[in-house]
C-alpha cells in the first residue's frame, strides 16, 4: 500500500475545457501562474515545457478551446511519495503488473524524461526528511575510501536548490547547484551531470556526491558510496535520472565561500542592416570563451535574431529595432570569476573589449557593459544568477557541445549562422559557459 498517496492525474489546464473539471475561476488562476516554475512543479504533471495536449487558455482575452484536453504522453497515475516505503511499493507494483514507470521530482527535465504515455509515476517532490549540515563529512558506514575531509550537506528528498543554497549561505559555504533555483537536487540534474554557476571552480553536480540513498528496482533501499554498492554509486553520478534506481537522499560537498566579480555584457545591432556586424561580434565573443575559461570566467548567456521578446534593454537610446528602445536581436551574457575584484575582471576581459571597441562595431552596434563585485558567492547568485526564468511555453530544443577547437575554428561563424536559423523562425540560443576549470 502507498497509504492513500495515489493520485489520478489531471492536466493543470483542464479547468479551461468543457468536462467535469471545467471551472472558469480556476482557469484564470492557472493562466496567471502558467509561466511559474514553482506552479508547474507543484502539480503532478506540470512541465517546464508542456506539450500542446492541453494548453492553458486566456479566457479574459477571449480564447476558446479549439481541441480536447487530454493527458497526451503524461502518466495516468502518480504516487505522491512522502516516505521511502511509498517509492518501494510503487516500484514493486509497477514491476508486478508490467507497467511503464516514470520518476519525477520537479519536472524540470528539458528532454521530457519526466513523461511517459500510459505510465505510473513516482513523484518525490514532497519526500522531504530534512537538510543536515556536517562541518566535517562523516561517511555513514565509516567508508575508508571516502577521501573528502571538508564540509557536507545531507539532502533528504525532493528539495530544490533554493532550499539548499539558503542553508549554504547561512553557513558561509558554497554548494554546486543549478543555475535556476527551482531545479531539484536529486533527480535528473545531478544524475545527468548537473551544471551550475560554481561548476567551473568545483566540478559538476555529479562530482559533488559523496554518498546516496537509492531505492533499487526490487524495492530495496540501499546506501551507495565508494565502499558499498560502488558500481551503483558510479552509475548514478552522470548515468541519467531514474536509470539505475530512485535516489531519495544524497550527501554533497560544501566548499568555503569566496568573493565574486561579475561582468554583464550586452550588445545589439542599431538596425537590421547591421545584422552581419552583430554576428561577427557574437563570433568574436565565442572565440574568446576558451581563454576566458582558462582565466577563471564562467557563466550563462543568450542571443537571437528577432526573438519573440526583447533580449537587450536600452533605456537611453531611441533606435531599438522593435521601436520601443529594446532590441529583439541581441546578445547578452553574465560571466563571473572567483577571488577577483571587478577591476581585475575588467583587465582580464580587456583584450576582448578592445576588439569589440573597433570602429566598425561601435558605429553599428549598441553596447552595454557593467562590472560588479560581491563579498560572497551567495550574494552573486542571488543578484545575477539564481533567477527563475518564465517557463510554460512549448519549444523544440536541441543542444551542441562546443570544445576549444570548435570555438576557435575559422568556420565558427558559419556554424553560428546555421544554429540561429532564419529571423522568421524565432530561434533563441542559450549559452552554457561552465566547462573547463575543475
Task: Describe what you observe in this structure.
With 438 residues, the chain is an alpha+beta fold. It contains 14 helices and 17 strands. Strands 5, 6, 7, 8, 9 and 10 form a six-stranded antiparallel beta sheet that branches. It has a five-stranded antiparallel beta sheet with strand order 16-11-15-12-17. It is globular and about 70 Å long.
Q: Main traits of this protein?
A:
438 residues; six-stranded antiparallel beta sheet; five-stranded antiparallel beta sheet; 14 helices; 28% helix
Structure described in brief:
With 438 residues, the chain is an alpha+beta fold. The chain has 14 helices and 17 strands.
Q: Give the overall average pLDDT.
A: 91
Shape: globular
Bin the strand percentage.
Answer: 15-25%
Radius of gyration: 23 Å
Protein topology:
Layout: E1 6-8, H1 24-33, H2 37-41, E2 77-80, H3 84-96, E3 101-104, E4 120-123, E5 128-134, E6 151-157, H4 161-171, E7 173-174, H5 188-191, H6 199-202, H7 205-208, E8 209-215, E9 221-224, H8 230-236, E10 246-256, E11 260-269, H9 275-295, E12 298-304, E13 312-313, E14 326-327, E15 330-338, H10 342-356, H11 359-364, E16 365-374, H12 377-385, H13 404-407, H14 412-420, E17 428-433
Parallel strand pairs: 2-4, 3-4
Antiparallel strand pairs: 1-2, 5-6, 6-10, 7-10, 8-9, 8-10, 11-15, 11-16, 12-15, 12-17, 13-14
